[in-house]
Design brief:
mainly alpha, 30 helices, 6 strands, disordered N terminus, Fungal_TF_Env_Response, nucleus, Zn2-C6_fun-type_DNA-bd_sf, XnlR_reg_dom
Length: 807
């Protein structure tokens, strides 16, 4: 028969605990020699060290950092982290007491508390959904009886050896500890926020990421930021409870319409018809120029003089052009297409060119593609899939293939280690390797995955600060064939990004490592290093702007700076997004809340959505219209980074913008006062323009519009109950507007909306079939066009569900 366990944190009455149970240094209880009926004095116990670890860590036999609460209890989401009072051995007190005091207590009755009720397996599973320590225990067992009855034990003529003074001393020490804890622990004021602390705690970001059917998203994924918006879960609950049938019907009509538009854009592919351009020279010139003034200045892939020469030769004698160049040209045209107009009129043709390039890469023999030109095509495909919305949520998979192909070709070794090479050949290899690393890193940020490559996996020197015309056939000499950093060349921007690449690789590896501990000190350390990188970039870009004033055509323009800044500032989202929910309760994380907001404001400013003065008419800088067009027409990081900034703006608007006028002086200043409502209005307008430019997913527009309505209602003092009642009506209203926009796009692209049954009618039949089988809301509330299985704004934590079957 096993002995009952003592209540955690309870001081033993008299000497019952010391006689009945002897605790080892780890806190495990062992059955001792119980002599209740004997009048003989028990042998004096050996003195032992006081227990310094918390009771939860002692029970689990793991190392404790002795904080309040400790790190292990925080990671295991144990609600109570308790420390036992300091134990005073009876032998020590006997020396300080008289024999008369012992005789006065000889008639005391020893009582034994009943063992606490151990919860069932189901209760343990419900309480420990987020416990991945391997034990599946909470901090302490909960007794089923709040007022346990004292069971009298057998007594003997012997007396209790614990004097009354020890009990009083222990009581005094407990009160003293409680006073200290009251000064350290900050109790949040629930009235300061419109949502209860329990609701926010339940929606705090899980430490290990989120899962969606067959895909796992780490902490850098943009969807994790929506955990900080409580109304999103309210929408999900209403949908799953069947209270929003009209909303579901409209949503499925939008999905059916979007699916019809995408199917109409897809043209049949054949290996016999690859590389046939059906556009005019004038239109091709515009798209080629657009590519070289935008992407090529940040991610160096092509040698511009060589490409220009081949481009002229193609229009003179097309049949004499190699297949490699034709595929390169099609991808360059696809990357330049989003900059032609605001509605991305060349979207269908750009998709066709990208699909042809993907098919060409798969055709045998594959070894024929193991060339520098083949690697350039893979880089262009990776970039164009994000810019033109072609399976952008799965680009990280192909980016891994790109890295391995580059390493298989030896690009991870510096050319000086591979033999004698010309300046042209060596520098093209160094440039391509830097671009491969950057593309892989950005795809990992978007997918919420690790970069799967570290800085020690290569020994390549940074590319030389040389213009393309300076890459000659002379023997490469890295020590002499380089301009000083202040000289502005076509490599200046990529070199600035390359300097921070080791830092960003380590940051993302730490953020998306499911084994990494949630150390806030690491977050602050990475934040300091990223801040230094941002300041360095701002200083150098200002220097480039001054130094190139004498040049007829600037080699570094605002698009290059905006894209580079977006790449840098997205790191703040990855660092501080996981603790934003906690920052609303715990002042310890206030710094993260402020930096997250400043970074989001900077991103909005870069995209033309945040300008001083509160004018909500669109981008303010005419010379930066290229970047605004790729934000409207593009996907991948050009959409995800902006979406990650939305929760910060919404939360600060809900909290009366208390951070908007406060500057900590960490990030470079963008100057001016910003109207947060105007920023949200611009964001809604941008998502509406995305729909009009051909995007088939309506959740971005609906989500941002409902966010704006939500903060406006709170600002007017609307009660939460009334707001929740109107929530479904607001969502349905914006879904109906989105459906009308999709119909307009369909008619513009020649989709037969009213022929063979309108998509709305097809949606009704589809909804009826799915209702019979059980709706898959994880798929219906997906944000990405090709992403099935992600709940709208509320990805489910991996710990809170059974592990999925992958495949």
């Amino acid at each position: 028969m096993s002995m009952p366990l003592p209540l955690p944190g309870a001081a033993p009455p008299a000497e019952a605990a010391s006689n009945l149970f002897a605790q080892d240094e780890h806190g495990a209880t062992q059955e001792g020699d119980v002599s209740l009926l004997s009048g003989e004095q028990q042998p004096q116990k050996r003195r032992r060290r006081p227990a310094l670890a918390c009771e939860q860590c002692r029970r689990r036999k793991i190392k404790c950092d002795r904080n309040i609460p400790c790190n292990n209890c925080i990671k295991s989401k144990i609600p109570a982290c308790s420390y036992a009072p300091t134990h005073i051995p009876a032998s020590r007190s006997k020396k300080k007491t008289t024999q008369a005091t012992s005789s006065d207590n000889s008639a005391s009755v020893r009582t034994i508390l009943p063992a606490p009720t151990i919860p069932s397996q189901e209760e343990l599973h419900a309480e420990d959904l987020f416990d991945f320590t391997g034990y599946g225990q909470t901090g302490a067992y909960k007794s089923s009886d709040p007022s346990p009855q004292h069971v009298p034990s057998s007594t003997a003529g012997s007396t209790s050896s614990a004097p009354r003074s020890n009990v009083e001393q222990l009581t005094h020490r407990v009160h003293h500890l409680e006073e200290k804890l009251a000064k350290v622990v900050t109790i949040s004021n629930e009235d300061a926020s419109p949502y209860s602390s329990s609701q926010r705690d339940s929606e705090s970001l899980p430490s290990n990421g989120t899962v969606s059917k067959t895909r796992y998203f780490g902490r850098s994924h943009w969807m994790n930021g929506t955990y900080t918006l409580p109304f999103v879960r309210e929408i999900r609950d209403r949908v799953e409870s069947g209270q929003s049938h009209g909303l579901v019907h409209t949503l499925k009509a939008c999905k059916a319409m979007g699916r019809t538009i995408k199917e109409h854009r897809q043209q049949p592919l054949s290996s016999l018809t690859l590389g046939r351009l059906n556009i005019s020279r004038e239109l091709a010139d515009q798209m080629v120029d657009a590519y070289f003034r935008t992407f090529e200045g940040v991610l160096r892939i092509l040698h511009v003089p060589t490409f220009r020469a081949d481009y002229e030769r193609y229009w003179q004698v097309p049949e004499m052009t190699s297949d490699f160049f034709v595929i390169q040209l099609q991808l360059v045209l696809a990357l330049g297409a989003p900059f032609l107009d605001d509605v991305f009129s060349m979207r269908a043709q750009a998709h066709q060119w990208i699909h042809e390039a993907q098919l060409w890469l798969m055709l045998p023999p594959e070894k024929a593609r193991m060339t520098i030109a083949g690697l350039q095509i893979m880089c262009l495909v990776t970039l164009s899939r994000q810019a033109c919305s072609v399976g952008q949520d799965l680009v990280w998979i192909s980016a891994g293939s790109l890295v391995r192909k580059a390493m298989h070709m030896g690009l991870h070794r510096d050319p000086s280690q591979l033999g004698v090479m010309t300046v042209y050949r060596a520098e093209m290899r160094r440039r391509l390797w830097a671009t491969v690393l950057e593309l892989n890193l950005q795809c990992a940020f978007d997918a919420g995955g690790p970069p799967l490559i570290s800085w020690k996996d290569h020994d390549v020197l940074p590319p030389a600060n040389l213009d393309d015309e300076e890459l000659t056939d002379e023997v490469d000499d890295p020590e002499h064939t380089r301009h000083p950093p202040e000289t502005v060349t076509g490599m200046s921007l990529q070199l600035q990004l390359y300097k921070s690449l080791p830092l960003r690789l380590r940051l993302l590896e730490h953020a998306n490592d499911f084994r990494a501990s949630e150390s806030y000190d690491d977050t602050l350390r990475f934040n300091s290093e990223v801040t230094k990188a941002c300041r360095s970039f701002s200083r150098n870009f200002a220097m480039f702007t001054r130094n190139q004033q004498v040049q007829a055509t600037p080699k570094v323009n605002n698009f290059h700076a905006s894209m580079a800044e977006m790449i840098l500032y997205r790191c703040f989202h990855t660092l501080h997004q996981p603790v934003i929910a906690r920052s609303l309760e715990d002042p310890k994380f206030y710094f993260s809340r402020k930096i997250y907001f400043d970074g989001a404001l900077r991103i909005m400013h870069i995209c033309g959505l945040a300008t001083p003065g509160g004018n909500a008419t669109g981008p303010s800088a005419a010379d930066n219209s290229d970047f605004y067009r790729i934000i409207v027409n593009g996907t991948g990081m050009f959409r995800n980074v902006v979406i990650q900034s939305l929760p910060a703006i919404v939360l600060e608007t809900m909290h009366k913008g208390e951070l908007a006028d406060l500057s900590l002086g960490y990030l470079p200043s963008i100057g001016g006062d910003f109207d947060l409502y105007a920023i949200l209005e611009r964001f809604v307008n941008m998502n509406l323009r995305r729909l009009r430019s051909g995007e088939t997913n309506v959740k971005g527009y609906c989500f941002s519009a409902v966010s704006l309505e939500h903060v406006r209602a709170l600002a007017k003092g609307m009660a939460l109950e009334e707001l929740e009642k109107n929530l479904t009506t607001m969502v349905n209203k914006y879904l109906e507007e989105s459906l009308e926009e999709l119909k307009t796009v369909a008619r513009r692209e020649g989709v037969p909306v009213d022929f063979m049954g309108e998509p709305v009618q097809m949606a009704e039949a589809e909804a009826m079939m799915e209702d019979q089988q059980g709706l898959d809301w994880m798929g219906d509330w997906a944000w990405d066009d090709d992403m099935a299985g992600v709940l709208w704004g509320s990805p489910r934590p991996y710990q809170d569900m059974h592990p999925p079957v992958f495949g």
